[in-house]
C-alpha cells in the first residue's frame, strides 16, 4: 500500500508540474522564437532533467575507510562492503545523477551510524547548476528508507544565501519549527517553505520516493505569467539537500555494531525537472568557453538570462515574454 501511495503521490506531483509548466505547449512551438508568420513569440529551452550527469558535491560518502554495512530487510539483515577505492564496491556521488535501469540500481551512500551519522549531524548534497534555472520538481528515490527529517534549500545566485524550499519531517515542529499541516492562503507570501510529515515513515525500507513540486499549493500557480513572486520562487542556481535525521527502529540504543552499521543514507536517483531560465526570449542555452552556460537570446535581448534589452533596442522597458506577447525589445 505504501509503495502504491508513494507512486500516486509522485504521479500527482509530476502531473501538476506538467500542467503548470508544460501547458506552454499550447502556444507557438517552443523551439522557435518566431511564429508561422515570422512574428516574434515567446520561446523556452527544452524541459529536462537538469541534474542528469551533473556533479553533486556530498559532505559524506562511505568507503573511506572501507566499511561493512547491513541492509534492513525486515526481520533479517544482508551485509555488504563499501570501499571507495574499489569500482565494484563504491557508492560515490556520481551515482546520484547517472543513468541506470531499475533492475540494476546504482546509488550514493553515506557512512553508517557507526561513524556518528545521525542528528544533530547532517549530511549535505549540493548540486551546482551553473546558471539560473526555473525548477518544476525535485525528486529523490531512496535506496534505504526515507529519512525521518530532511530539507531542500536553494540559491538564486552564485554565493547568495541558502533559502528554504521544502521540509520533510515526522517531527516538523521539533526539528524545523514548522507546522506539519500548514498551507498557503491567497495573500500569503508564496515563497514560504512548508513542512510535511507525509513521507517520513520508516516504511518502505527501500525504494521510497519523494517528489517536491515547486508550484503545488501556491495560489497563484495557475496565473504564473502574472506572478513576479512565483517566477522568483521557481528560480534556482544551486540546490542543497540536507539529510538531518535517520529513520530507525530504536534498536541503536543498545550500540550493537551490526545495528549501527545498518542505518545510513542512500539515494539511487536525484532528479530535477526544469528549464534553463531565459525569460521567454531564447529557445536554447549554450556553453561559452569564457562564460559557461548562457541563453542564446532573441527578441533583441542580452544577458545570461536574456534579462535586459540590447543597448540599441531600449525604446521601451525590458519585460519577460508571455503567452500573449513576446515583449521584444524595440529600437528608437
Q: How are helices and strands ordered from N to C?
A: HEEEEEEEEHEEHEHEEEEE
Whole-number radius of gyration?
Answer: 22 Å
Q: Outline, from the CA principal axes?
A: elongated
At the fourth CATH level, what is the homologous superfamily of the domain at 47-276? Answer: Galactose-binding domain-like
Class inferred from helices and paired strands:
mainly beta
- Mean of all residue-level pLDDT scores: 89
Number of DSSP E strands:
16
Report on the biggest sheet. Answer: 10 strands, mixed
Helical fraction equals 10-25%
Give the percentage of residues in beta strands: 25-35%
- Architecture (CATH level 2) name of the domain at 47-276: Sandwich
Counting DSSP H or I runs of 4 or more residues, the number of helices is 4
**Cα-to-Cα separation, first versus last residue:** 64 Å
- Would you state the CATH class of the domain at 47-276? Mainly Beta
- Which regions are unreliable across 5 or more consecutive residues at pLDDT < 50? 21-29
Organism: Zoarces viviparus (Viviparous eelpout)
Domain Laminin N-terminal: 39-275
Pfam families: EGF_LMN_ATRN, Laminin_N
Signal peptide: 1-28
